[in-house]
Fold these 4 entries.
Entry 1:
Amino acid sequence: MWTRIARLFVIKTKFEAFLILYGLALGATERGVHFVQKYPGWLGWFMFALCPIAVFMAGHRILDSLERERDEMR
């Protein structure tokens, strides 16, 4: 039973990975907008720019792990 539940949290395909990355990107830009409102000026925009960069880094890691797993299966 627990293994069936645990399988729901495993990213198996690139489509699933891109859906997760889309959600992360939406949240990051929303957080960036709050940073711009809270810290007007260059600091807010700098922090806004850092939010999507974190998503790019996470996306690279997720997609790279999917490719490695696919290569190991061959």
Entry 2:
Amino acid sequence: MFKVKMIVSGRVQGVGFRYFVIISARELGILGRVWNNDDGTVGILAQTDDSQKLEEFTALIRGEKSSKGRLSPFAKVTYVESSPTSFPDFTDFNIKY
């Protein structure tokens, strides 16, 4: 199982970015959570058995790969910090409030 924690910086709160993350994750079969941080960043926990799907998901988050127009034109990712981590397994992908 491949598990990462991402912190996404830029204009990513209040612009539909978390919903873009959910749609992208679900289409790729990625499990995990996404949430807003108090400092204006967005946090993501993502897990999958397929490292290629995780790379594709990360590329979508960074804006390096086409997202079929789902990303709000108001969102702008400027930096993604991604690191391997450990957390209990998820069974879906949703927003953490």
Entry 3:
Amino acid sequence: MAKWYGEIGYSKTVETKPGYWEEKIYARNYYGDAMNNYYRRQSSGESINRNIKYDVTLSILADPRLIENCSNIIYAEYMGTKWQVDKIDASQYLDFF
């Protein structure tokens, strides 16, 4: 298990003018652990080269702002790159609130 520090981005719909709404992205830095790093090669029927899929699990030390917006998380920065978030397991901290 490796230590991790990076940016988490989440989106919120905000009213910019009366009647006008737009998505805004907010980002903050968090600490946590990087676990379960997996590389996988995937074959698709139409391509010659196989795709490489990379999976990593980030365990984040969350604050109330992140907990409130966990369903709106869109990316996590890992190894200097912003990665799309596919799955969030919020069951670990919901027992405490």
Entry 4:
Amino acid sequence: MSSGIGANIRRERARLGWSQARLAREVCRAAGIAGEPVGRQEVSRWETGKRKPREWLPFLAAALGIAVEVLTTPETPAEPPLPTLADFLPAEDPLERLSVRTGGRIGMGQVVDMQQRVHGLRLADDVLAGGDLIRPALRELRKAVRIFREHSYSDATGRQLLVQIGELAQVAGWIASDAGQHAEAERIYRLGLSAAMQAEDRTLAGNLAGSLAYQLTNTGRELEGLDLALAALDGAGPDAPAKARALYLDRVAWAHTKVGGSENAQHAMRALGAASEALAEGSEDAEEPAYLYWVDAGELQVMESRVYTELRRPLRAVPLLRDVLGRYDATHTRELALYLSWLAVAYADANEPEEAAVTAERVISLSADVASERTAERVRVVLARLAEHADVPEVRAVLDSRK
């Protein structure tokens, strides 16, 4: 976290609702300098205290519309400030453009083509697992970054390129995480977050940050995941589309649940309620980003049931899961296996080991041909929970079949 001048710069930038890239441009404009000798990375270094602005200080103040003293006067907060999305950006800018463009000039036609490929990859992820899609996903992402860095284009086209890189990074990060490549997924998510913030697309930045928060929460980094989930919600702002806000609140609820404790359980319940309210407030006529097509009341119901299962409240979880699964698309094999795994655990917690065993068999069968680390991990969780009822014949049969 930053302090002193860095904290003041970040506070004033946030007051204006500017990204770090926007502030960098405004500083150059205030200094009357052509080009961009100050970039997003330099602003990040100022804000984190890794470097002092020195000769840029008067231009910083002018760009922000404040006196220099406002930046140089230390501010002692009542409590440590919450992290912002800027705290989770990669240390170096992976999207820094080459000084000499080796590619030709591109226009919106190429961006539209990229947009269609990104959405096609997103739809493929609905029916295929990470292990099947990781290679084409990474290939598309590398190609998109290369185009952005090596080609020339208008400002409008450049912004849309950044948006598509951000969307592609979210899909590719999700796929890498599903394939069990968590370090690669984190790198991809952070690259996408950088693209979204440079494009000043707060909703997309929230989606990327929320996706990374979800991975951190599920891989033993619960406190980091909670900080990032809260930063994603705050960064997207109160005017985010209804589905986006509902999704980010769901991620906050899950993060609180995984951190554990009665206080976090209460926070999780409140976040779930707020997610449902946010979704209900949305209008069918409202324009939503295409990547939120899958967020609906059923998905919120799944998260609610998962929270109840994690909190060992099976009597609430089981009816919700059975309702959702009764109308779920059977072609989405991975998600079906995942949701059934939660039902199996809830049955076991409800002291219904026979039902848990039957459901576990379905989970194992569906997971057998799915190249997903998520489903593999859930199978391990289900079997561990079934082992608590190993004296029940139906359960013993399932456990023996896995030896």
